[in-house]
Structures are given as C-alpha cells and as structure tokens.
Amino acid sequence: MRLLTLFPPFLATCATAFPTSSSDKSAAAASFLSSLSGRSNSALPTRWEWTSTGPLVGPKNDGRQIAGIKDPTVIVINGTHHVFASTAQSAGYNLVYFTFDDWSQASEAPFFYLDQAPLGTGYRAAPQVFWFAPHNLWYLVYQNGNAAYSTNPDINNPKGWTAPKVFYPNGTPEIIEQNIGDGYWVDMWVICDTLDCHLFSSDDNGQLYRSQTTISEFPNGMSQPVIAMQDKRNDLFEAACVYSLPDGKYLLLVEAIGSDGHRWFRSWTADSISGPWQGLANTEQNPWARSNNVGFEGGSVWTKSISHGEIIRHGSVDEKMLIDPCNIRFMYQGMDPGAGGEYNALPWRLGFITHNNPAC
C-alpha cells in the first residue's frame, strides 16, 4: 500500500507552544484554558462529517517483520508530534514510539521499539500517554494481560520508560471475569477530574467498565470496576476513550463493529465521568465516525474501517484530557478493505480524520 506523499493544507501541524518545565506546563495549560473560554457544549454537533488523509504510517522494512501499526496515542508539544502505537504480527504485540514535526515527515520517522526500554519484551498493546501533573511524570498506560503502566520524566527519552506495574495487583477483577465470555480484557484509558482518576476498560463482549482512585493515591488504590455502559457485543466493542470539554462536560467514544463488518465509532456526552451517558452520534445512520460520514482526500478510499484511535491532543496533554471542540483531529487505524487472514497479521496503517465543525 502506497503511503500518501501529497499533503493538503489542512495537514499542517498545529504548533502549540508547550514548555518542558513543570511551572511552564502549568502556564501553558492555563493559556490553553483561556483560549477555550466561552466555548459551550453546543459546539459539539449532533451530526458529524470528516475528511481523512491517506495512510500516513505503516510498518518498516527493518527486520522486525511487523504486519500492522495500530492503536495510536498522540500528543503535540512545541509543534512536535509524539506517537506511541502497538506493533502487531503473528508472534504477538509490543509498542513503538516515533516523533515528527510535520505530517509530511510521518512516514519517514524512525521507530524506537519500546521492548528496548525497561518497559521490556512480551505482550504490551493499546497505549495511552499523558502528563500526570501531581507527579511531574509521563504515564504510559497499556494492556499486558492486566491494566499496566510505565512512567518516564522525559517523553523525549524513549529508553526511560520503566518496567510495567499494574493497576490491579490481584489480577483480572471478578466482575470482568463474570461478564467477559469469550471476549478479551482490553483498551485501558485513564482520565482524571479534580478529585479522582478513573480507569476505563472493555471486554469485547458488550461491557464498558470504570474504576476509580483519588488523585492523591493514583496510580494505587484502584477500586473494583463497575459496569459504566452495556450493549450488544458488536455495538459496544472496545477502544473507549473519554475527554473533558471546556464547559465541564465529557465526551465518550467507543468502537463498534458495524453491520457490514467494518469498525466505526459511537459517541456520548455526560456531566460527570461516572455518567450517566447520553447518546450524541451513536447509530450507523448517524455515527460519530464511520465510512458513511468520512470523505477521503483525492477520493481514494483506502479503508472502510475507522478503528482504534485517539483525538490528537495539543495545548493540554495532562490527565484531564481536555480537548478543543473546534479543533478535532482523530488519528485512527485503517486497512485495505480487501485484506483478510489472521487477526494479528492484518495490515493496519495509521491516518487521521479532521472534523470541520460548522458551529465554530
């Protein structure tokens, strides 16, 4: 599959200044909040339309024999994009890190495989990265059979990620074991409010779970999960992510498997991270992001799936997951609609979609 080499104007990088010291991070976050003042939840439309890039990042011919690049988490600091993603192949999963300033450089960005860091070898997948301000540390959350995390004081040093620790020292929580059926416990996501940190996860069987602990105890003391949402298996499958909005509300995205077999995203909003969640754009006829509301630059439809991804965060990269509803770009995994075969060996590639919000 040929990587996109021509980049339209909307692909220009968003070079938000975000200094590296703790005090400057606080100042930059305050500046970002000020820029969002006056925004309301009315800026989130009930119907969404997107424009997609072509495939921008895929495996390299570097001897690793990676089949797919998946599950991106991405932040922008001082105009530099920092991306972590899963590497998939028949032998299993691990994580990769790469960085670039402009999307035209993305396909050439060198890969650093995180099995070369103390984070180590073995099953690691579905990363989420954020700056946890109370600890002055970067956290990388991922799955390793449990809900795991590593920390690093410097995101520019990929060798600095610590060995995995887990949020649930006693193993898979009982409520998940009771409901998982033939699914898998996957896709951990952390978001914090002013008092607590919340951990979401999915079971590929129709349940979305949520645990919590206090800001002061995090990452320890995670409670037993509760079911935050429940639906049919394919309608509430995996890859949940939660963001805060300028008006104090929250946006929840969850990946589903469509009636055509392709992946897509549903959306909800709530006044609290604990819910209840109200549907925003969550049907195949009115999706958050699906093949029927995504157009492709140049008209070349390289994927029918809008799968596991994340809103590109810039200006605010901390644990509160604050986003600007007038600047939403979503980095996702897609693949050739004609591809098939073993799941771990599917040829996933990374691109992103941009939302042109008429309310803004």
From TrEMBL:
Catalytic reaction annotation: Hydrolysis of terminal non-reducing alpha-L-arabinofuranoside residues in alpha-L-arabinosides
GO cellular component: extracellular region
Record GO biological process: L-arabinose metabolic process; xylan catabolic process
Signal sequence coordinates: 1-17
Sample GO molecular function, one term: alpha-L-arabinofuranosidase activity
UniProt keyword annotation of rRNA-binding present: no
Functional note: Alpha-L-arabinofuranosidase involved in the hydrolysis of xylan, a major structural heterogeneous polysaccharide found in plant biomass representing the second most abundant polysaccharide in the biosphere, after cellulose.
Protein family (similarity comment): Belongs to the glycosyl hydrolase 62 family.
Name this polypeptide is given: Alpha-L-arabinofuranosidase
Species assigned in the record: Triangularia verruculosa
